[in-house]
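Data availability (excerpt). The following record was deposited with the supplementary files.
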Amino acid sequence: MAKKTKTYSVHSLTAFFMLSLPLLVGFLKYANRTSPDDITYNKPNLTGIVISDEKPKFSWSNWFSGTFQSESDDYNSDHWAFKEITVRLNNQFYYEVFNQIRVNNFVIGKDDYVFSENYIFSAMGDDVMPEEKVMSLLEKAKVVQDTLKKKGIDLLLVYAPGKGSFCKEFIEDKYIHPVKNTNHNLFIENSKKLGLNFLDLNTYFQSIKETSPYPLFPKFGHHWSYYAECLAVDTIIKSIEVLHNSIVPHISWQQIDIVDTARSRDADVLKSMNLYSNPPQNMQLAYPQLLFEDGDYKNTTRALTIGDSYWYGPLYMGIPKYCFANGQFWYYYNKIVPRPSDDIKEVWQLDLKQAIESNHVIMLVYSDGNLPAFGNRFIQDVYELYTSPNTYYERNHRETQIQTFAKQIREAPILLKKATQKSNELQIPLDSAIRLEAGKMAGVN
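Predicted structure:
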């Protein structure tokens, strides 16, 4: 009887090869890592996704609690060989077939304009606050303004335009309905009534929309364009000069680069879309080559800015350094940029009174989509600090423990990822989810 020879079908070999391919690619990446200590060799190049570089460490307590297994699953899911390409192909499929982008709370409007849904809701008045709440907040701001003025410090509220209100014609029809009122209108009306120092950039940008030679909002960006940032900064500088009766270095430009591929932050959402192949941008954008007015003697008005991500553009331009005497930026009244030291990175670590009174101007810069969180408790804290210091310091002491744990969460990718998942599950802002987790760690919640 002839001996049977074992054969393998082409399908079996193909299946074996496909199953082995991720392991082979992962091994090649490991072999070609830059150094034996390199732990990022297999990290996917994706924007806006929290990924931990550090492998979970085994311990018996982690094993029996199940923590090690869940963290290992997360790590392996984030670092397998084809993580990046599969994410990009999946995102491309949704973009091409369903006209959807896989970016949290962002949607595509007409003519490929991308929007944060929150800014659409703001433009349509769907997030409008009770007027008494706005009035209460601004009344406290007026007390703060008057108190600081006696100390030679000016308070300026800057209302920046949102993409939803500025580019309303590109919002999908399903979001459109008659608008009764908006937070922007409420803040402007009540700021006027109370005699607050404010700058309405939202209305200003609407007034120049038809005559601006260059786009003020890009298609694939979340914020105003670089060109619009330059106009906004120029207006803010001149307003501070009048308000504080001081000389501030001006910005100017003699040359403007006109390009059809976005620079700076003008395609920040496009990067977060993590597509396999980016669409054509089909928009010529302007990039002035900034010049700063000479003379250190002019750069003496120190301005502290509390605000949302709209102020990051001017920060990258060097405005705080070259125009506002190295004034800090307190991002959402939390992260300090530039940070004073390696030990102090967040506002709660500062002596608030001392930090405020080391400036000449305090400026709050918020776009309309963030008006429901205007100031992020800065106004309430400063109001309490000057009107009832004892209760402020008692409450501040209780908050310190929660803030310590919140800082740990923000700085540990594994914990931050859990907080991000909690944010998505509960449909709450990430900062709220971080505070919730920090409260649990502190034994408060």
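Summary of structural features: The chain is about 45% helix and 10% strand.
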